[in-house]
Amino acid sequence: MNLIITCARHLEPETEEELRGILEELGDSNAKVSITKMSGILTAETKLEPIKVVRKIEEMILNEPWSIRYCLRIIPIQKVIETKIEEIEKTVADISKQISNGETYRISIEKRNSNLSSQEIISKIASKIKNKVSLEFPDKIVLIEILGDKTGISILKKVDVLSVEKTKRNISE
């Protein structure tokens, strides 16, 4: 998976169809879109670059706000690993080079179907990153998305995660 998509509960089939159409329009007719066992969560595996997909979908919303009806949030994922604290720690250490010297960061964890301690994950990751932390206005977000036994990890800017509702709200202001 390189995208996690959230939608309203019980609208997963409609969201899956919408997402397949969007990815096909963007040039990937073979994208794998899966409805997870978790209510309101889908994953997608696309050959397209996930952050670029998010930007293109945002453009679609800005040009035609009602073209996206079911997707609520679209989150790009850079690495997928097994849900184990050691794996998460090692992977974040490997990709933390994406946080440049002088940039601040924040760790955000979203857990679904997992008993791992967020505090433990945060303290292990934070010990590996030498940059300063900024909870309010970080330059980068170390995003840990735990979906049961699989974990998606990304280091992103705030604008790289698409909230469809916020984007639509900003248009109307």
SSE order and pairing:
Layout: E1 3-7, H1 12-25, E2 32-35, E3 41-45, H2 50-63, E4 71-76, E5 79-82, H3 85-95, E6 105-112, H4 118-126, E7 140-147, E8 150-156, E9 162-163, H5 164-172
Parallel strand pairs: 6-7
Antiparallel strand pairs: 1-3, 1-4, 2-3, 4-9, 5-8, 7-8
Helix pairs in contact: 3-4
What is the percentage of strand-forming residues?
25-35%
Which strand order do you get reading across the main beta sheet?
2-3-1-4-9
Q: What integer is the average pLDDT?
A: 96
- The structural class is alpha+beta
Q: Can you give a write-up of this model?
A:
The strands form two sheets. A five-stranded antiparallel β-sheet has the order 2-3-1-4-9. It has 173 residues and is α+β, with helices and mostly antiparallel strands. The longest helix has 14 residues, at 12-25. The model has no long low-confidence stretch (mean pLDDT 96). Helix content is 33%, strand content 28%. The chain has two domains: 3-77 and 160-172, no CATH class; 79-156, VC0802-like, CATH 3.30.2130. Helix 3 runs parallel beside helix 4 (118-126).
